[in-house]
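Hey, resending since the last one bounced:
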Amino acid sequence: MIPKVSILVPVYNASNYIERCAHSLFQQTFEDIEYIFVNDSTPDDSIEKLQKTIEQYPCRKDNVKIINHETNKGASASRQTGIDNSTGNYILFVDNDDWINTDMIATMYKKAIEENADIVVCDYIVEKNNNSEYRMDYVSDNNRDYFRDMLENKLCVGYLWNKMIHRIFFELSDCRFNENLNIVDDFFALIRIYYYVKKCVKIDTAFYHYNKQNSYAQTASKTKIHYENVILFYELLEEFLKEKELYEKYINIVEFSKVSIKSELFIKTHSYQLRKQYAWLFREIEMKYISQLRFGEKLILFFSHYRMYFITRITQRLLVWKNRKNI
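The structure tokens again:
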């Protein structure tokens, strides 16, 4: 019998979090759930802790699969492995350091069936330093705006984990994850999915708890792989838009996004050598959109171009400090 919902969880270096995550999944009030945990060759005891947690839920045990990667492949490949081994009509991704409310699946699945929806979106809570901050996602009333809203990634949030998505979209070749993208893999998949979606609905409740404390520590300092992933992401995005004959229609959104993400990378990069190496990244369009950036973003780009190391470093530290205070 095909399960109604599959929950997919990549597992890597999650020893401090996997038990809390798994408890929240197994305690769901909804019964017909398939659980797929993908062990991405984690070097710690995450899987041992997961297996002990599974034993505490005998009624769930038969619906749990643990798929093992022989080598570490990254988040994107792990998500695709989860999809390939799942059978549920709807799919929900959960990161291994996050957790969800016990009524999340029941409420979202009910909404999906009542509305005959392709995607059900909910709000989420950012958890950091014992503080909980409510964050809203957005769904337009007009389905013609879905794709544009996701591409802009302003009101519409480019995360997978607060969205229950019909599996039919993951069966499309366009919507498969790219194993070379592990930084923006959520956004990569969602842009393509939202191109095909006919009906997306929203529940104005925060069911998902995003562990910013752990995630921020992992991603605060941008490294060379972040730059390489961003470059590949835009190459693939432009290829997709041209294939769908949408490139000219959305070129301004894409170009501004490039400049904006470059400034973010520079702010969160601790290496002067990386800023020097990528100073001319997207330079041909930078001046066209720089006036739309915030003052600090303009400064970091300006000083990086002219290799003013100490001023750039001071500016970067001030902006990082400001961002941390605002999180």
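The radius of gyration is 20 Å.

Sorry for the duplicate.
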